[in-house]
Amino acid sequence: MQAVAVFPASRVVERIDQPEPQIGSPTDVKLRMLEIGICGTDRDIVTFQYGTPPPGQDHLIIGHESLGEVVEIGRAVDQVRPGDLAVLSVRRPCRHGTCFACRAGRPDFCFTGDYTERGIKQLHGYMTEAVVDDQRYVHRVPPELRNVAVLVEPLTIAEKALREVRQVQTRLPWGYPSRPAGGSGYHHKAVVLGAGPVGLLGAMALLHAGFETWVYSRSPDAQRWIELVGALGGVFLPAESVGLTELVGRVDNVDLIFEATGASSLAFAALPYLGTNGVFVFTGVPGRKAAITIDSDRIMRNLVLKNQVVFGTVNADRSAFEAAIADLGAFAQRWPKEVSGLITGKHLIADFRKPLLGHRTGIKDVITFA
Ligand code: BGC
Ligand code: ZN
User: Fold this and answer.
1) 316 CA closest ligand 1 atom index
2) Confidence class of residue 181 from pLDDT cuts 50, 70 and 90?
3) Per-residue confidence band for 63, with pLDDT thresholds at 50, 70 and 90
4) How many C-beta atoms surround the C-beta of residue 166 within 10 A?
5) Which of 76-80, 191-195, 312-316, 361-365 has the lowest mean pLDDT?
6) Among 115, 257, 339, 351, who pairs with 347 as Cys (CB 3.0-4.6 Å)?
7) Helices (DSSP H) in the chain: which residue ranges?
8) Which of 38, 41, 115, 283 to mutate to test the pocket of ligand 1 (most atoms within 8 A of CB)?
């Protein structure tokens, strides 16, 4: 069985041959992988900036954005059946009895940092022909989502973030308005920083939840993004020609900034523009670049005088996967062309090098199996 693995010590990325995994416990599910998405995390791993092989091994099989077909189940499996399509979650709990988060089934909030992540941290990933995992990490997706379900995992990042935004906005005396009312006083004006997969999926989730949404990003091909975001009902503003002051002039009170670039320079430049009672969410993991200067007095003054909340969010729990699967279904009905258009490249596993190591061009590249 072929797989794509990174060997950090010898700085090699290679296709390897692996024995096929077998069902080992009554709650195990075996999947034949159909599509594996590639994201910035994978590109960081294959350039040896991130990622850790399982203890005692010299390599890590990459891939954490999955879509597979169930081919075999253990005798106690009751969540999926052979023939079902499914996506797998990424993070697995740490072993410490004292980690309240992991013991509560929420390794996305792990306290110890000893969580593992398939395809990223100490567990092999999904860029291989077959995978076995416990059914609690397997999420069934309806067959009509076959062509886009590989987008579920990146969408879970936005789903978890939006749930937290809702919780934060509920602290306002008038609560979180559940129905789009539009106009002033609704507090649903969002700016998305970044127009990659997480930014665009986040914009879809925000628009679908009734936010007025602006997507702000550097883009060599602005016209394409103006059309795409416009078709969703949002507005794209290219960072090359529109300054942050002008952006805020258009939005008025920025109730939410959803950061999806992983570029700390843009994020911290935008932070002073967050509106009154606003929420700023970080989702990107930046590489290590030189330190930057920020207007810390202005930021701190705003945080206090404007009741602002800044938080980061990582990974996702079961309910975020369920929300992502439901939302992706809704997006696919509402914006069929735009949703499938997010997947801009499909590559056989033998051709893994181009999408993983080549120059980035499209939105989401996906690995497929012959
Ligand atoms: C993945 C998350 C993971 C995070 C940190 C992201 O690319 O989507 O599941 O928790 O990287 O490793
Ligand atoms: Zn990812």
Assistant:
1) 9
2) low
3) very high
4) 14
5) 361-365
6) 351
7) 40-46, 100-103, 152-169, 197-208, 222-232, 244-251, 264-270, 296-305, 318-334, 336-340, 353-357
8) 41
Least distant ligand from the CA of 157: 1
Relative to the alpha carbon of 262, which ligand is closest? 1
With the most atoms of ligand 1 within 8 angstroms of its CB, the residue from 152, 157, 317, 321 to mutate is: 157
* Confidence check: pLDDT of 176 > 70: no
Checking DSSP bridges between strand 60-61 and strand 2-7, what pairing results, if any?
Answer: antiparallel
Query: Do 237 and 214 form a contact (C-beta atoms < 8 A)?
Result: yes
The residue nearest atom 10 of ligand 1, judged by CA position, is 315
Average model confidence (pLDDT) across the chain: 94
Distance set, CA 309 to CA 170, 213, 339 (Å): 12, 19, 31
Q: Is 25 helix (H, G, I), strand (E, B) or coil?
A: coil
